[in-house]
Design goal:
By secondary structure, the protein is mostly helical. The protein contains 2 helices and no strands.
Amino acid sequence: MSYHPNQAFPSSSRAPVQIAELALRGANQLFDMQLSTLRTVWQTQARAAAAFGFPDCSPLFEGNGFDDRIREMRAKGAEQFVNTTQRATETVAEIQRQVGELVQTQAATAAQTWQQGLEQLGAQADESLQQWRSTAQQQTEQLGNVTRAIGERAQESLREGSERLRAQTQEAGQRGREIITQSGDQVVKTAEEKPAKR
């Protein structure tokens, strides 16, 4: 079975299965050799026993299909084992491939979520900074308005104070002139009255 390059197991993952298959084939050949040797030994012993008058049982160990059936059973068992191992390897490879895809998908989702979170955080920071700028500008404008109002009131107070001071000065000057005029009139009158009394 060929594997796609993107699968979790490359073609080299078949190596354990091939090793197991070779080991089974070697074991089958060794078992065949041992069985053949054992059959020959049994035949020899049966013939030796027949020479001493025992019943001849050597035909039981001759090739009558028994060895073929044993070989067939072993071959089927080995083939079934190899197929099972291959299916298990393919299943493990498919599971690992799916797990790899799942991990990649989750990593991509996590990266996208993280990026969206950063974008939202940046947008919130920009919005907060804009609100702070707007608030600072409003406070600056309010402070400017208060400062202008205070300056206008101070100018008005100074103007009113200057007008009152000027009015008081004029009034004091007027009174001073009146007092001086009255004093002069009084002095003149007194001076005029003194010669008359003489």
